[in-house]
Specification:
alpha/beta; 10 strands; 353 residues; ten-stranded mixed beta sheet
């Protein structure tokens, strides 16, 4: 397929998907604010905002950014307004493989980097601690933007990526024009994680406790792909992904630092890994659960099987223009890949707020 034909296809898909989507963010928000009510939680149908699935991104780019040599996908015009999209665990950049062309067709410069410990992203020195704490991932995102000379971007993410964009929006609001966050407000702290949850809630975090043991480290290293597939199935019980879809993302977990980063991330949350002192100032600020003032849309799938907070529990953490969207149709944890049209429309709507 020629570039010209492909661009026409992307433009058509982007326009068609967006024209079928729900009420614009600004209109919904204005109605909620004028009535004094909370933004509607009525589910939006995913079926009307899906896009045909692509196989992969084009050739990846690389940039030296802080501690990392970051591999990333880029689509859209180089001078377009930037959108930074961050994936989670155990997923990869292909979570946005169908989101990116929709946004590119609307003129956005879409950037989707592999996080530390994923895909072709590599640490630049062997001496760097393989640290997975939330502050380290947030600083990675800032240094990535710095390396590409991006002063300000619309941010979007889910899972680890949602937590990271939450942190950027809270502590570096000057770098965040607006934000889309799946599962809402995910900033945490070691102190808050000391508090036990009810037994049913603790059960959902079984893998976190598994990773706290040496048996868990050995098991995740030995069965990385099998483990990831199980998480995908549990987190998105109604997503009928095929082997090819899973395999292309699971390849990103073969990164030599993936296991170390994953284990450290979950151990840090439980206070079993100390983190690095250079991030203490950031973590101290995050421990206060800072509010987020940039325009925000939070999203949730109606069939998310992964642990996630109730939208009502975090709504007041967003002090700027804000809307929550529930996406129906059996959409699970990997919302951008399961409902790419809905996620892309949220990015565009929040940018125009």
């Amino acid at each position: 397929m020629s570039d010209q034909i492909d661009q026409r296809r992307r433009t058509f898909l982007g326009t068609a998907v967006l024209s079928a989507a729900a009420v614009p963010f600004a209109a919904t928000l204005a109605a909620a604010q004028s009535s004094g009510a909370e933004p509607s939680t009525a589910p939006l149908p995913a079926a009307s905002v899906r896009a045909p699935s692509r196989i992969s991104f084009g050739p990846l780019k690389r940039v030296a950014a802080g501690l990392l040599d970051v591999a990333y996908a880029e689509e859209g015009p180089a001078d377009g307004p930037p959108v930074l999209l961050l994936h989670g665990w155990p997923y990869d950049i292909h979570a946005y493989v169908d989101v990116a062309p929709i946004l590119a067709a609307q003129g956005y410069r879409v950037l989707v980097p592999y996080l530390r410990g994923y895909g072709e992203t590599r640490f630049r020195t062997a001496e760097t601690p393989r640290n997975g704490q939330q502050a380290a991932l947030a600083v990675d995102a800032i240094t990535f933007m710095d390396a590409l000379k991006i002063d300000r971007a619309v941010l979007g993410g889910f899972d680890w990526g949602a937590r990271t964009v939450n942190i950027l929006a809270a502590l570096w609001p000057e770098r965040c024009k607006a934000m889309v966050s799946v599962s809402g407000y995910l900033i945490g702290s070691q102190e808050s994680n000391r508090n036990p949850l009810p037994p049913k809630a603790e059960l959902q975090w079984w893998y976190q406790y598994y990773f706290a043991t040496e048996r868990g480290v050995k098991g995740y290293r030995q069965y990385t792909h099998d483990f990831a597939r199980l998480i995908w199935q549990l987190a998105s019980p109604r997503w009928a992904f095929d082997d090819a879809t899973f395999d292309r993302s699971a390849a990103a977990l073969d990164n030599p630092d993936h296991v170390a980063i994953s284990i450290d991330n979950y151990r840090w949350r439980l206070g079993l890994a100390k983190g690095e002192a250079k991030y203490d100032e950031i973590e101290n600020k995050l421990a206060l659960s800072p509010t987020i003032g940039v325009p925000t849309i939070t999203m949730e799938g109606d069939a998310n099987g992964a642990p996630h907070p109730d939208p009502a529990a975090y709504a007041k953490k967003f002090t700027g223009k804000y809307e929550f969207r529930l996406i129906s149709g059996g959409i699970g944890h990997n919302l951008p890949q399961e409902a790419p049209g809905a996620f892309a429309k949220a990015i565009i709507d929040v940018d125009r707020a």
